[in-house]
Amino acid sequence: MNYKKYRKIPEIGITDRKWPGNVINKAPIWCSVDLRDGNQALEVPMTMDQKLKFFDLLVKVGFKEIEIGFPAASDTDYNFCRELIDNNLIPDDVAIQVLTQSRPEIIEKTMEAVYGAKNVIIHLYNSTSTLQREVVFGFDQDECVKLAVDGARLIREHIDSEYSDANYILEYSPESYSSTEPDFAVRICDAVCDVWKPTPSSKVIINLPETVEYTLPNVYADSIEYFSNKTKWRDSIILSLHTHNDRGTGVAASELGLLAGADRVEGTLFGNGERTGNVDIITLCINMMMQGVDPVLDFSNINECIDIYEECTRMKVDPRHPWAGKLVFTAFSGSHQDAINKGRKKMSESGSSVWAVPYLPIDPADVGREYEPIIRINSQSGRGGISYVLEQFFGVILPRSFQRDFLTVVKHETDDNSRELLPQELFDLFDDYYINVMSPYWLSTFSEHSLGDQKSEVEAEITYLGKPQTIKGSGNGLLDAFVDAFSTYTGVKFSINMYNEHAMENGTTSAAITYIEIKRADDGQIFLGAGVSKSVTKSSVRAVLSAFNRMIK
To answer: How far is CA 381 from CA 374, 376, 386, 410, in A?
Structure first.
């Protein structure tokens, strides 16, 4: 790794920074740039119909500011803008945002594109970093300021003379702000504000983009606090963030930027954008929600967001994407599964309204997910996870001895096949090993007769290798009498070591399940079996036969 060819971006000279002691206690103003910044980064840009569908989604989840394109850059963006306006598709409480460079002909076409809209944000930008000024444009700071000021003045003139009927909000971005000299960023933004003359009651947006993420998130936060302290227009501007994710810390940069005093965030759903993407607004929102802060936007049906996003952008949400990936509410580890199971039971027992489940920072239901997929069974799973799935899906509450024994069965099955088991497959495996053990002995019929003083006599018809045999026995209750009859018939002495039964309340069929441990008299070895029937007595006898059949296999 040739690290010597790179140079560290200078840090901001703040010695009395205040932002580390701040907290985020309210949501910022959110602005989606999916239809402009996100769309321009797609291999195949969205069609008109896809843009309209995506716009409707953004409105549905609650965005009040939506950047819809760069109308002067392409006919597609221009036509989309007109489609929204001419067909009255923009709610009265939503402002569309359009991007424009600081060039007269582009500003002119931009103003034409938004004519007739009720609420419009005109977003002016020009590149301000040293690298951009020297390499791309070949001009100095004064020329850079003049370019921004000329554009700001022209926009102001258009609004005042021709487009005054609408509610216009003005926005300026010093592109590549995070690699622009901090004092120059203040200078150029103040110069634009000098032209627009905002007031505390009629603010403009100053957007400070981390167009390319070069530094640690705390350095970006320092720059936001520096700018906020140095600009002379602070009480008359909405300070906005626009972070990218080149270093993988776009979310952190925006969160720290909010701590540093920003009022607004521009970003995209699932972080779509150029290179490694923009900041993911969904992640930011749910991060706030899990801290008890109302994020304002509503992602309670995150599956719908995923479906529309993937359909319109042709991009895929990664299985490990924060809060949205299909695996983020899934536990494979046995210890994690056990902790989740115990946490959910504790909440149910306590009746608490405060979410507190290990390994699940939020309730999956709050983003429209189901509980069923949380526990997934593979070779890493433990008793807790296996027990959870059987109980939640089938109403099977395993005794401890069955938990231990069945864990070994599951691990063999998942290791041999190198895959996870779906819930029905897990139950079928349990069924085959403990319930449906009908060979070599099978129960045809049985009857119980009371002998008084809690004594019982049992007569049963047993089939062995296809041959029926009637057996009789007596004892203290049904099971003791059946064990007596069956031991006499087979010549194998055994006793009941553990008995447990319950109703399978969550199963597809109302039934009782009985769990039996039998102990072989010769060596004391324990064998397990289970029986299921609408009759508890029948399920008990079936459980004994299942355990015995497993013993002699």
So the answer is: 12, 8, 7, 9
Q: What is the pLDDT of residues 480-538, one digit of tens each?
A: 999 999 899 999 999 999 999 999 865 445 789 999 999 999 999 999 999 998 888 88
Contact between residue 228 and residue 261 where contact means Cβ atoms under 8 Å apart? yes
Number of C-beta neighbours around residue 553 at 10 A: 9
- The answer to whether residues 487 and 462 touch, using CB atoms and an 8 Å cutoff, is no
The phi, psi pair for 385, rounded to 5°, reads -65, -45
pLDDT of 374 reads 60
C-alpha span between 320 and 212 (Å, rounded): 24
Alpha-helical (H) ranges within 351-458 are 383-394, 400-417, 423-430
Query: Which amino acid, one-letter code, is at 504?
Result: M
Rounded CA-CA distance 349/151 in Å is 64
Q: Which of 77-81, 314-318, 347-351, 414-418 has the lowest mean pLDDT?
A: 414-418
Residues 215-244: b if buried by 16+ CB within 10 A, e if exposed: bbbbbbbbbbbbbbeebebeebbbbbbbbb
Neighbours of 424 (CB within 10 A): 11
Coil, strand or helix at 503 = strand
β-strands 455-464, 441-452: how paired? antiparallel
> Element (H or E) spanning 502, and its range?
strand 494-503
DSSP string of 227-256?
HHHH-TTGGGEEEEEEEB-TTS-HHHHHHH
279 near 267, Cβ under 8 Å? yes
Work out the angle at residue 30's Cα, subtended by the Cα atoms of residues 285 and 354, and round it to the nearest 5 degrees.
25
Q: What distance in Å separates the CA atoms of residue 458 and residue 462, rounded to the nearest whole number?
A: 12
Q: Half-sphere exposure of 426 toward its Cβ, with a 13 Å CA cutoff?
A: 30
| Neighbouring residues of 203: CB distance < 8 A, sequence distance ≥ 6 | 236, 237, 238
From residue 176, alpha-carbon distances to 128, 140, 187, 208, 309 in Å are 6, 16, 15, 8, 27
Q: Find the DSSP H helices in 237-396.
A: 250-259, 281-289, 302-313, 334-350, 383-394
Give the pTM. Answer: 0.79
